[in-house]
Amino acid sequence: MVEQVLGERYAIKQQLGKNAGRRTLLAQDLQTQELVAIKLLSFGVDFQWDDLKLFQREAETLQSLSHPAIPAYLDHFEFQTAKTKGFALVQSYIEAKSLAEWVKFGQEFNEIQIKQLAQALLEILMYLHRQHPPVIHRDIKPSNILLGQPSGESIGQVYLVDFGSVQTLAATEGSTLTIVGTYGYMPPEQFGGTAVPASDLYSLGATLIYLVTGTYPAELPQVDLQIQFEPKIHLSETFVDWLQWMTEPDLNRRFTSAEEALNFLVKPGQREKKLPVREKPVGSKVQLNKERDALEILIPAQIEYTDQKGQEHIIIVNNSLFRFRRFWTWAKNNPEHLLLLISVPVGLFIVAMFRIEFPVGIIFIVVFLLGITKSTKLRIDRQQIYLIHEWFGAVRYQIQPASPRQTICKLGFLYYDNRRSIQIWAGTQEYVLPTKDLSDSEIDWIANELSQWLNLPITKQK
Description:
With about 450 residues, the chain is α+β, with helices and mostly antiparallel strands. The protein has helices at about 50-65, 100-105, 110-130, 190, 195-215, 235-245, 260-265, 325-335, 335-355, 360-370, 440-455, and strands spanning about 5, 10-20, 20-30, 35-40, 75-80, 85-90, 95-100, 135, 145, 160, 165-170, 220-225, 225, 285-290, 295-300, 305-310, 310-315, 320-325, 375-380, 385-390, 395-400, 405, 410-415, 420-425, 430-435, 460.
């Protein structure tokens, strides 16, 4: 394809790489005279529809990004030649060697340079993971990291390229995940089709281990899936511990974010202990049913009445907070609760006035007592996560739309007004478990069970 012109604009200079139906070419933009990189996806014998999905996702993602260390999106179009046809993605060309090439040519890196490299890549990941929704690279490895010319103690300019495996959590809603990545650099959860921001941290850690050992991570020994690299290196104890932390196979023990990893890289600190296994608190009425493919948590309702300095009354019914200074405002906004509240005196009135042997009024009281017992149920199965309310022990309504199970990406505590709630993110959808009437031990127990079952760490957010 050398000397050919694609899209009536890009003159092909040479091939930069080739991999399973994809080629990367160096070309010159005949309009701007600048060099560009063109990724081609051809419809050949090895073409798969998943390749097209990933290719389109890469183009869409690059269009939304703007960072000096990430190739800039320039153009995309369909192409056809005498031998093949397909799609082309045009990006800015970065004139630098990959980390894999530097190692191949005999370049060695000391601890100071490796820390500089780690810091630069973590700053790039912070930018990606802070996007809405978060952008997860899913294929960080030496060949996808470009370096300018190292000089002295300086690592040089660092770039992260090849977003062909990128995933945005919103893009996965309503679809199945495509398992991508490179063996040896992929964290355990990614083999199951799940990728979260902390998955990129594992891949970065494995890449750094490759640099310090000169050995492909998959060829290093493992104990309980933890890469054993210490005998082959001479690094400071704190940096070794940091690398182990980055490559923890258990998400509960890995860094939860690039920002956290960077903070501990710059200012090493003591690693937190693994989340302890907690038993259900004695006397708890929370029901938790856990199976291999489904987890269900039922939080019963309670009633509470308080008076704040005589100025405002608060009624907490079924874990819902209703504040009112004017009864009419409350009644207008909550007619169903008004009906339940007046059912008791109405029932007593019927009993007293008509002296019915079979007190029909008692029915009103029963309706009230059952009605206020509105429980909250969280259910996660193989297909989806959803949160529902149950009235009268049977009538149900869904609080918010269900989300696909594979989009669950974050679990944490949400702190507000000195109260703590359990928060689950599934793509862009937030699910908050009402914990107002639960004790701290019950909240910790539920969070621990969710963390263990979902294989997600618990984060804290103000």
